[in-house]
Amino acid sequence: MGRRLMVRRTLLIVLSPLLLMQALWVKWRTPRLPEPMGERSGELGEGPLLRLLILGDSAAAGVGVSAQHEALSGQLTRLLEPHYRLRWRLLAKSGMTTTQTLAWVEQEAAQADVVLISLGVNDLLSPIGVRRWLTATGELIDGLLASSPGAKVLLTPLPPLGAFPRFAQPLAGVLTRREARFNQALMAFCQGRRACQLLPLQLPLTPEALASDGFHPSAASYRLWAECACRAIISLHRPS
């Protein structure tokens, strides 16, 4: 074991009781927002058929806004409607990890031309290591491609959790380093898979960009996310 890694692990062991107390305090102080009401599937628009699956955690589910039309799914489908006959579906639930989502997708066997994924935050906040997370991500994508050969998979980078106002030191520093390792691994993963693309998404962390819980996106941030995903989808499936 290298000296730097040994020192890092020693510090984590020493700090772990404090980190646990901080994490529990943040969880207790953070209001739990519900998933918004609204449609989670539909068909709209005219033109070439595009089957879209939005998959993931509370952010994919739209937590932070009051209705799905303000969330990622509603804003993205409106942006895509002028270009395609869009058949879309949202499979997302608060608290979902990558492994839990894999089991869910295996039951649903949803078919799609494009899959937009928002996962990783709940994995990052758990004890799981980067390698196990990437293995689960690979298994998830393999399962999606088995149901939908030829589909393109758009993955969303993890947000800079350590910079969120809810997190203080030393927990913020640990989350910052962990997020950097997760995102670096995810970038390398996407570069090694032709079906995968990592969205170039960097959402602001201003008060206007965050929901009332100081953690989930606001309607304005969901709009930026939808615009980024829309550009990527159109570049992959150019309408005639």
CATH architecture grouping: 3-Layer(aba) Sandwich
CATH class: Alpha Beta
- Which strand-content bin applies to the residues? 5-15%
Say what the CATH topology is: Rossmann fold
Shape: globular
N→C terminal distance: 56 Å
Number of strands: 6
H/E element sequence: HEEHHEHEHHEHEH
Give an overview of the whole structure.
- The chain is an alpha/beta fold.
- The chain has a single domain, classed as SGNH hydrolase (Rossmann fold), CATH 3.40.50.
- It contains eight helices and six strands; from the N terminus they run αββααβαβααβαβα.
- The protein has helices spanning 3-29, 58-61, 72-80, 98-108, 121-124, 130-147, 171-191, 219-236; strands spanning 41-44, 49-56, 85-92, 114-118, 152-155, 196-198.
- It has a six-stranded mixed beta sheet with strand order 1-3-2-4-5-6, with helices on both faces.
- The longest helix is centred in the first third of the chain and has 27 residues, at 3-29.
- The chain is globular.
- The protein starts with a helix and ends with a helix.
- 35% of the residues are buried.
- Residues 1-15 have low confidence and may be disordered.
